[in-house]
TrEMBL record:
It comes from Lodderomyces elongisporus (strain ATCC 11503 / CBS 2605 / JCM 1781 / NBRC 1676 / NRRL YB-4239) (Yeast). Active as '1-Cys' thiol transferase against beta-hydroxyethyl disulfide (HED), as dehydroascorbate reductase and as dimethylarsinic acid reductase, while not active against the standard GST substrate 1-chloro-2,4-dinitrobenzene (CDNB). May be involved in cell wall organization and biogenesis. The lineage of its organism: Eukaryota, Fungi, Dikarya, Ascomycota, Saccharomycotina. It catalyses: L-dehydroascorbate + 2 glutathione = glutathione disulfide + L-ascorbate; RX + glutathione = an S-substituted glutathione + a halide anion + H(+). One of its GO terms (cellular component) is cytoplasm. GO terms for biological process: cell wall organization. This is Glutathione S-transferase omega-like 2. Gene3D superfamilies: 1.20.1050.10, Glutaredoxin.
Length: 255
């Protein structure tokens, strides 16, 4: 992403990669060969005048945008495509009815204070705002840590935010926690502590998802994550330097 918004990699950039499986520069637009996400918005509506945000859920048949709000897209993906999925995937329910209220409650404070909290910290332009937002992020990381600790003390099989059941709440938190040590500590100055050294229960939860639950590791590319942040935010990182550490980006489960 640059000052013109989210872009797709060019053919020349892709040729520079060592492997066709390397997605550190992102993936190209396989449908239309567009160079910018804004082109999709204009294809859906030539008179569009809003923001060009990601993610985008695109309907290939109708050639239009179905939704561009991440919280709504992830909820839709839980059920809306079950009729065309293999049974083992269709039967997976990340928002079971008996836990939906608790999931929504956790999602609410996690989004406001952690998912979005790192951005409010990183883009703060006044010291007092930064101080307030940074402390708030860690206050709520403490809250997650305590929740996981209490779950574990009740039953060692309780490895997730809501006991022994993986839910949408875990997935929505994962996207921030997997980026925390490699990016947010240095890039957004969320540096009161690190997940790996200050939050043992949260650290175990993160590594369990990444190393043992299918889908998490396969959809995480640390090179892409780090380059996106360090090359996109020129006010924060004007020279576009991408730090080498931490090494490794995530520790093994038995570390």
């Amino acid at each position: 992403m640059d000052d013109k918004g989210w872009r797709f990699p060019t053919e020349e950039e892709l040729k520079s990669l060592h492997s066709k499986d390397d997605v550190s520069l992102g993936t190209p637009d396989h449908l239309y060969g567009f160079s910018r996400i804004r082109e999709l918005y204009f294809k859906a509506d030539p008179d569009y005048s809003g923001r060009f945000t990601v993610p985008v859920l695109w309907d290939k048949k109708e050639q239009t945008i179905v939704n561009n709000e991440s919280s709504e897209i992830i909820r839709m993906l839980n059920t809306e495509f079950n009729s065309i999925l293999p049974s083992e995937y269709a039967e997976l329910d990340l928002v079971p009815k008996d836990l939906e209220k608790q999931i929504d409650e956790i999602n609410g404070w996690v989004y406001d204070n952690i998912n979005n909290g790192v951005y409010k910290t990183g883009f703060a332009s006044k010291q007092e705002v930064y101080d307030k937002e940074c402390k708030n992020v860690f206050k709520h990381l403490d809250k997650v840590e305590e929740l996981l600790k209490q779950n574990h003390e009740k039953d060692k099989k309780n490895e997730f935010l809501l006991g022994n059941t993986l839910t949408e709440a875990d997935i929505r938190l994962f996207t921030t926690i997997i980026r925390f040590d490699p990016v947010y500590v240095q890039h957004f100055k969320c540096n009161i502590g690190m997940i790996r050294s200050h939050y043992p229960y949260l650290h175990n939860w993160l590594r369990l998802l990444y190393w043992h639950i299918p889908g998490f590791q396969e959809t995480t590319d640390f090179g892409h994550i780090k380059k996106h942040y360090t090359k996109s935010h020129t006010k924060i990182n004007p020279y576009g330097i991408t730090p080498l550490g931490p090494v490794p980006n995530i520790l093994p489960l038995d570390a």
